[in-house]
Specification:
Order of helices and strands: HHEHEEHHHEEHHHHEEHHHEHEEH
Distance between the termini: 55 Å
Radius of gyration: 25 Å
Oligomer: single chain
Strand content: 5-15%
Structural class: alpha/beta
Strand order of the largest sheet: 1-2-3
Helix content: 25-40%
Number of strands: 10
Length: 417
C-alpha cells in the first residue's frame, strides 16, 4: 500500500477529528497554548464588561404621504385625520428561545471584540521574522521552511516602510508565472520579493490589498478589515515615537482571533446552540475536488482558477481522503519548481511534517458551540463537512465562522470602523 492510500481516514471520530494533542486544562479565564508559528505561553485575560447592552436598529417607517400642495402647511392640518391609508409595517415574528440565545451569544462576542484590542491577542512572548523586500524569493522560501512558518511581513528598507505580507499565495503565483512563461524559467531564481507585484500583473492576478491595523485599535476593526479584503491574516503596524517611522509589531491570524474568542467568551459561545445546517454555515455547492493521482500542478491550477485556498481530495465515491492546502506548496517546491509540479498529490501530501495537525471534520447537525470547543482545544484552519460515511458535503472556512460572528443579523455587512 503506497503513502497516498495510507492517508484514507479512519471511521469518523467526534467533531474536530484526528490530530493534535488536546489541551485538557483550557479555562474560560486563562489558558496556555501554542499561538502562531512559535510555541509561547500566554495567559489570556478574562473577558470583562462583555455584557453591555446592544440596541436593536430602529424600525424603518414607510414613505410619507404626499404633502399639502400649498407652499405651507397650516398647523390645523396636523389635527385632521389623514384620509389616506398608510401601509402598516409588518410585525416581525417573535424569536424562538434558541434564536434569542443565539443572538445573545453573538452580541456578547461582538461587544467583547469592541472592547479588546488587537494587542490583547498577542502572547506574552513571541518571535517575529520580517523579510527585506530585496531578498531573493528562493532564499525566502528556505527561511520559511527552516523556521516552520508559512508567512512573513515584508519590509521596504529604502523607504523604511511596511511593504506587505509574504504568503503561500505568492509562491503559487510564481508557479503560475513559470507555467505561462516557461521561456523565463532561468530567471525565476533571480526574482526578488519586490518582484511579486510584477509577477501578479504578468499573470493577470489582482493583487491583494496591503492592509494593516494599529495594535491599539479594537479587535473588531481588525476582523472587519480582514473579511473585507479576504485576508486570512493581518499585520499590526505601529508608529515609532522617536523616529515617526512604521514598526511591524506582529501578525495576527483568523485562527488566533477565533481561539482568543473561544477561550475568553465561553459564556457566550455556549449559547450558540443552532446547527451548521440551521445557520447555513459554509459552502455546499460547486465544490472543487481533486484526487490522489492528480498532479500537484492540476490542483494548484484549480485553486488559482477558483480563488480557493484548499481542495478536498476524494476517491471515486466522493469519500474524503485528505485536503490539499495552499501551504502544502511551500515544502513541495523547496527543491525546485520544475521538478515537483508533476508529482502526484498523494506523494506530495506524504511529505508533510510530523507537526501536521490533520484534517478536521464536522457534520451538518453539529452545533456552532461544539465548533468553538474544538477551536479552544485544537489548531484548525477549516472544517470538512461530511456525512456518516465520510462523503463530502461541504467546506467551512475560518472566514465563514468569523463572518457569521461579526455580521449575522446586522443591517450593515461591513459596519464603518
Amino acid at each position: 500500500m503506497d503513502d497516498s492510500e495510507s492517508r484514507k481516514p479512519n471511521p469518523r471520530p467526534p467533531l474536530g477529528a484526528p490530530t493534535t494533542n488536546h489541551n485538557a486544562d483550557v479555562h474560560t479565564a486563562a489558558t496556555t497554548f501554542t499561538t502562531g508559528d512559535e510555541p509561547s505561553n500566554y495567559a489570556w485575560p478574562d473577558a470583562k464588561n462583555a455584557n453591555a447592552d446592544v440596541h436593536a436598529p430602529a424600525l424603518r417607517v414607510g414613505p410619507a404621504t404626499i404633502g399639502h400642495e400649498l407652499p405651507f402647511v397650516q398647523p390645523s392640518s396636523y389635527l385632521r385625520p389623514s384620509s389616506r391609508s398608510h401601509a402598516i409595517p409588518p410585525v416581525a415574528a417573535p424569536m424562538s428561545p434558541i434564536d434569542e440565545e443565539q443572538m445573545q451569544g453573538l452580541r456578547g462576542m461582538r461587544e467583547f471584540l469592541r472592547v479588546r484590542t488587537s494587542y490583547d491577542v498577542l502572547p506574552l512572548s513571541f518571535r517575529l521574522i520580517i523579510l527585506d523586500n530585496e531578498l531573493l524569493i528562493k532564499k525566502s522560501l528556505n527561511i520559511l521552511i527552516q523556521n516552520g512558518i508559512v508567512s512573513a511581513p515584508l519590509w521596504d528598507s529604502h523607504r523604511s516602510k511596511f511593504a506587505g505580507l509574504l504568503t503561500a499565495t505568492d509562491y503559487i503565483n510564481l508557479i503560475q508565472y513559470y507555467c505561462q512563461f516557461p521561456e523565463h524559467i532561468d530567471n525565476v531564481d533571480k526574482f526578488r520579493l519586490s518582484s511579486l507585484r510584477d509577477i501578479e500583473r504578468a499573470i493577470g492576478v489582482l493583487p491583494l490589498e496591503t492592509v494593516s491595523v494599529h495594535p491599539s485599535k479594537p479587535l473588531y476593526e481588525a476582523c472587519s478589515r480582514m473579511l473585507k479584503t479576504r485576508a486570512r491574516r493581518i499585520p499590526l503596524v505601529d508608529i515609532d515615537d522617536e523616529t515617526g517611522r512604521e514598526t511591524v509589531v506582529s501578525v495576527i491570524t483568523q485562527y488566533r482571533i477565533l481561539k482568543f474568542i473561544a477561550v475568553n467568551t465561553e459564556q457566550y459561545t455556549s449559547l450558540l446552540k443552532k446547527t451548521v445546517r440551521e445557520i447555513g454555515l459554509g459552502t455546499y455547492t460547486d465544490l472543487k475536488t481533486g484526487t490522489m493521482t492528480q498532479s500537484v500542478l492540476d490542483v494548484i491550477n484549480l485553486m488559482v482558477t477558483n480563488n480557493i485556498s484548499a481542495v478536498p481530495i476524494v476517491d471515486k465515491n466522493n469519500v474524503v481522503l485528505n485536503v490539499f492546502e495552499a501551504v502544502d506548496v511551500i515544502p513541495i517546491i523547496k527543491t525546485g519548481v520544475a521538478e515537483e509540479l508533476d508529482t502526484s498529490v498523494g506523494e506530495a501530501l506524504s511529505k508533510r511534517g510530523d507537526d501536521f495537525g490533520g484534517i478536521f471534520t464536522c457534520q451538518e447537525d453539529d452545533r456552532l458551540d461544539s465548533i468553538f470547543i474544538t477551536l479552544r482545544q485544537s489548531r484548525l484552519h477549516r472544517l470538512v463537512v461530511i456525512d456518516d460515511h465520510w462523503h463530502l458535503k461541504g467546506m467551512i472556512s475560518l472566514s465563514d465562522i468569523l463572518k457569521y460572528v461579526l455580521f449575522h443579523g446586522e443591517d450593515e455587512y461591513f459596519p464603518p470602523v
